[in-house]
Amino acid sequence: MTVTDASSLASGAESAPLTLAEVDRMRADFPILDETVNGHPLAYLDSGATSQRPLQVLDAERDYLLHRNSAVHRGAHTLAAEATESFEGARARVADFVGARENEIVWTSNATEAINLVAYAFSNASLGRGAPASSRFVLGPGDEIVTTEGEHHANLIPWQELAARTGATLRVIPIDDDGQLQMVAAEEIIGSRTRILAFTHVSNVTGVINPVERLVALAHAVGALVLLDACQSAPHRPLDLGALGVDFAVFSAHKMLGPTGIGVLYGRGELLDAMPPFLTGGSMITTVTLEKAEYLPAPQRFEAGTQRVSQVIAFGAAVDYLSQVGMQRVHDWEAALGQRLVEGLESIPGITVLGPGPGVERAGLASFVVEGVHAHDVGQYLDDLGIAVRVGHHCAQPLHRRFGVTASTRASAYLYNTPAEVDAFLEGVRGVTAFFGVVPTQYPQGSQL
User: Fold this and answer.
1) Which CATH number is 18's domain given?
2) Model pLDDT, residue 7
């Protein structure tokens, strides 16, 4: 197989829309997309959970392991120096990809660990660690942590636990029937007692894009810090964290063509240098005695122990691939697929789409409920047709509870998906109710009974 040079896909104008011919050529970089499932061509519509990896990413990690594998930031021999150069080079490319400086990118195991890192830094500051530099992170009774009703559990439970450890109060911005944040309520909730506001950029259930700039302005006006969950935005749209003005952000490689086991905490440099560390041990210190230790500045102060070197190398290759394709082109392609998904689902009797309907800006995903059929059964039926989707509560039980359901089926597209795959998925969904013997009572508006 000839591996597509991703740089050829950008071919000049970054703003030129992706074409189906380009996407078809790109798919050659993802051999798994040629697999068959149950005798059907695989239609992989579960990239919101984890994306596939192109050969370029797999080859970058293998090349590192074959030729430069060594411990980073340790040793003076040639392999150690080359490994460190590759490791830090990847950090630089990931930083550039999201509009950050190199010292503002901390490697973590995943986005969940990154959020916990920030939460535990607040806890440690509240215990007096890192004083006086860490005083702005101290929480106690009367202080408030604010998040939203639409969060993934990873951006909810760490704040619940932080509130329990410190005596702070957790407050939640509600959403409306379309999954949009109720901004009038947000303006009332974010106030003088707010110390940190944590919210998702793009909902992993509804595809809603939250108003980052407006929320950041509300938080900063009262002196609060902002953490952005960018797990569903970094892979799918241009992202400039510096321009957005957030104080912290998190995202994971495995959702953006990279490997599992590697994620990112972005933090403004002066904040990271003031935060007490979460994990401690080797490689994050300057001086150690039997009584105490002094810590390196960020990012090393948050990277204790042996690092995930080959995964970092692969992550660098993943953002290279995305950059060469062009993130605006990726966004536009997926936005069109997202509208095709929701328009098609809205036309099928017995289907309820969670979140906004057609015509509203959304990510390239759609979650839905089939009247009278459990989401797990919907997913199994589609899997029999070779269509891979996500089923369950998508680690967002409060959000599903807000919509009055316990589970949904989610189809999520990426740059390698095609309109034909979306149409095959929609045709599969049309067959669900008949297969399970359900007569729908819900019909699309304007349909003929």
Assistant:
1) 3.90.1150.10
2) 42
pLDDT of residue 448 exceeding 70 = no
Nearest to 60 by CA among 27, 93, 33: 93
Residue type, 59: D
Give me the domain span that covers residue 228.
62-323
Candidate list 10, 395, 405, 438, residue with the active-site label: 395
Number of H helices, E strands in the chain: 16, 17
Same domain, 264 and 123: yes
Q: Do the beta carbons of residue 302 and residue 265 sit within 8 Å?
A: yes
Q: Is residue 284 part of a domain?
A: yes
- Mean pLDDT for the stretch of residues 76-81: 92
395 is catalytic: yes
342 with 394, same domain: the answer is yes
* Nearest Cα to Cα of residue 230 among 339, 328, 172, 154: 154
Instruction: Show which of 287, 302, 323 is a domain's final residue.
Output: 323
- Whether 184 and 264 map to the same domain: the answer is yes
370-417 pLDDT, tens per residue? 999 999 999 999 999 999 999 999 999 999 999 999 999 999 999 999
Pairing of strands 285-288, 293-295: antiparallel
Non-local CB neighbours of 213 within 8 Å, separated by 6+ positions? 244, 245
Distance CA 91, CA 253 (A): 12
Rounded Cα distance between 91 and 105, Å, is 7
pLDDT in tens, 269-284: 999 999 999 899 988 9
Same domain flag for 412 and 431: yes
* CA distances, 73 to each of 77, 80, 294, 303, 304 (Å): 11, 7, 18, 11, 12
Is residue 26 domain-shared with residue 154, that is, in the same domain? no
Q: Considering only the C-alpha atoms of the chain, give the largest distance between any 2 of them, rounded to a whole number of Å.
A: 79
The pLDDT of residue 14 is 56
DSSP H/E element including 347: none
Is 449 contained in some domain?
A: no
Geometric angle at alpha carbon 199, from 140 and 346, rounded to 5°: 145
